[in-house]
Structure formats: C-alpha cells, structure tokens
Amino acid sequence: MSSVIPVSLPQNSYDIAIASIAELGDRIQPLSKLGKKALIVSNAAIFKQYGQTVTDSLTQAGFTVSSCLLPAGERYKTPATLQKIYDAALENRLERSSVMIALGGGVIGDMTGFAAATWLRGINVVQVPTSLLAMVDAAIGGKTGVNHPRGKNLIGAFHQPRLVLIDPEVLKTLPAREFRAAIAEVIKYGIIWDAELFEMLEQAKRLDQIRAVGDELVREMLVRSAKAKAHVVSKDEKESGLREILNYGHTIGHAIESLTNYKVINHGEGVAIGMMAAGLIAVEMGLWDRAECDRQKALIEKAGLPTQIPGGFDRSEIVPTLQADKKVKDGKVRFVLPRQIGTVIVTDQVAPDTIEKVLNSIDLLRDP
C-alpha cells in the first residue's frame, strides 16, 4: 500500500512517495516543466539489482534514458567523482528540463543532487534511495554536496528534489551493517522529535537485522522518520533555525568519520558515537537526566551500533576538527543536545573542556 507525505515549501514543494520503484516513470511523468531526458546515477552493485526496473519504468513513460555509474563508498564522494556525472550530462546532452535520477544510498543521492544543482545552473533531480539511511534522512530535504579532504559535506548546495520515491522492498537486499547504520538516524528522530517512535524501538525484540525487525516496524520507521523530516524541512528549508536539530549526533560523528578517512566507520556508526557523546555532554551540563541517557545507550547497543570511539587516531584531534564543521558560527561549535526524549536544544555554549572530558570518558572501540 502506497503512502504520500508532502514536503510543503514556499517554492519547490514535492512529495515523498512510499511505493514500488516500478512506478517511478508514472509518478514523475506528470511533474510540470519536466523534459524527456533522464540520467540515472548509481553504482554498479545497485544498478545491477534495480537499474533495469528503473530504466524500463522510465522508458515506458516516454523518457530517453542514459546512465552514469560511480564507484561505491564515502571516500569517493569528491569533486573528482562529481566530474563523471558532469561528463555524462554533457555526453547525453542534458537540458535544463532534463532530470537526474539518484538511484542508491546517501552518497549517490548527495552527489547527484549537487550535480543537478550545478549543471546548467540547476536541473531537476529525483531521489530513489535504496538504503534505509538515505530513505529516512539523506534523500529528503534538498541538502546536496561532496566532501573536502578536511571535512564532510563542506562543498554543497540546497537543491530540492522533484520527488522522493521510497520502496521498502529494496531493503530486503540491504547488507546488515548498512541496515544497522540507518537505525542510528531513526533513533535520532526519536530523541529530537518523536518520543513514541523511540518507545516503539525500545519495545522491539531486535533492531540489528531487518528480518528480525519485521515489515510493519520498518514501514513505521519510514513513515514516521519521513514525516518528522518533512515537517522540520517545511518550517526551515535552509537550516537557519529549527532544521539544525536534524544534526543531532552529527557534529562529533562527522569529525570522527573525517579523522578516520571514512574507512573505519560508516556514517550511521559515526552518528551513533556522536549521539553518545552529545548525550553525555548534556548530562555533564545538567541538561539531561542520566537515566534517559542510559536508555539512549541501550537502544544504540540494541541496534548493534558502536558506543565507543574507534582507535587509529588521537582523540584530542576531535575538538580542533570540530572548528571545520559547517555548523560553526562566529567561531563557536553549535551542538544539538537533548533535554528529554523527544526534545532537544541547539547551543554554542559547550566548553571545549567539557567536550574533551566526555570524549576521554568514552572507551576506545577495539574492533571497529
């Protein structure tokens, strides 16, 4: 059964459709000012599984379809890889009315979105996320970009998609580690917005494998996460206020990802560690109850996610790295900190000494 969740914006509103990817062509065909050229951007593994279905759907809807396959992994989310999309756009003569289809996880979605934002000063993009992480977070909201060697997503633009199409069936082929990573973002929504979702996750017998979680709870995760993000983005499209709460766990998480060269932990694992740190900072500052912080830790562990900092680098490097974060304002790092499950605040009043004390209290991860 399909569901449609609207993302209402002053300009460029769009829908999040929970439906089969076989419906893609029919769902984008009615969109206004859309030409008939489509470029699918994906990686080889994802395209092998779903590329033909998407291509057939678009072709049957009257689109002329081409494709661009990129290497998989966060380490390839660079300006150099982005050039491959531009080359394909030029080779296939994409026009301002053409559409890029991001078929893949968050890396593909971010790069395709940024390519669409900058090719011919902006063309259409449709997000077709194939990972749970992208479904609940990256594909929604119009944030696009690539990484700089010294920081994540420092090069980017806001560029809203024309449609986000989420097919829960594709998750059945998702590797277990990627599924667990996405649960970090779902837990995040529970902490920042939806206490009922958090309690649902607590009541689940297991969260570390999609088969153990079950179709009903997975769909509930998708719908509730999408509604939460759609509401926040609708209120604050370009992160000038409320939208900052979506960065819960990301500040320290991004720093650790960067310091380990995106090779040791994945994004969701970084967010899990970042949520642990942010929760402990909130406790240290007297903002959050220790018992609720322990509930967060238990849920992260239940999902098979790390609550420890990986080795291989000096943890004292984390605080200086935070200064390169795109959320720094007037030289001050802005943290999202919980007050209670379902409610957070944004503050730049976290002392470096407090951050270091908390980081030093977290054990090193022996087996990342």
TrEMBL record:
Pathway membership, UniProt: Metabolic intermediate biosynthesis; chorismate biosynthesis; chorismate from D-erythrose 4-phosphate and phosphoenolpyruvate: step 2/7
Binding-site list for Zn(2+): E185, H250, H267
Keyword Transport in record: no
Annotated keywords: Amino-acid biosynthesis, Aromatic amino acid biosynthesis, Cobalt, Cytoplasm, Lyase, Metal-binding, NAD, Nucleotide-binding, Zinc
Pfam families: DHQ_synthase, DHQS_C
UniProt family annotation: Belongs to the sugar phosphate cyclases superfamily. Dehydroquinate synthase family.
Matches recorded under NCBIfam families: aroB
Protein name per Swiss-Prot or TrEMBL: 3-dehydroquinate synthase
Species of origin: Leptolyngbya boryana NIES-2135
Lineage, uppermost ranks: Bacteria, Bacillati, Cyanobacteriota, Cyanophyceae, Leptolyngbyales
